[in-house]
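Bench notes, afternoon.
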Amino acid sequence: MRIMFLDDMKSRRDTFQKNAIGHTVDFAITAQEAIKHLKDNEYDAIYLDHDLEEDHYQVNKDEHEDGRFVARALREMVKHHGKIVIVHSLNESGRLNIKSILNDLFDVWLPEDVKFANLWQLEVDVLLGAIQKFNKQEE
């Protein structure tokens, strides 16, 4: 599977990469990097974080380049419509905002039932296997 993973925390990226053996993962740290990956490639699954680095906390900006910014750009990329988007942010309102932006065009998953402290310790293959099974059922 090909996955785009947006997160500004190195430890999360490293853990995801360690557990995603056998899958192609394109990592993005900023909203602009994520949008470039999404424009250039087609993905089976897209992971979005909401709060990204210092940009999220700069209150003087009209438009924060956070996960919502990526979600709005993603709506325009028809090649990704119907794909799975997993919003893994610790920010509950951010998760819900991203879901509301994408819910009509994507299968949006909010891993609320998983304690976030343990999320990065889960075997990525288990989740990816579930995504593959889901995709086969849709065909």
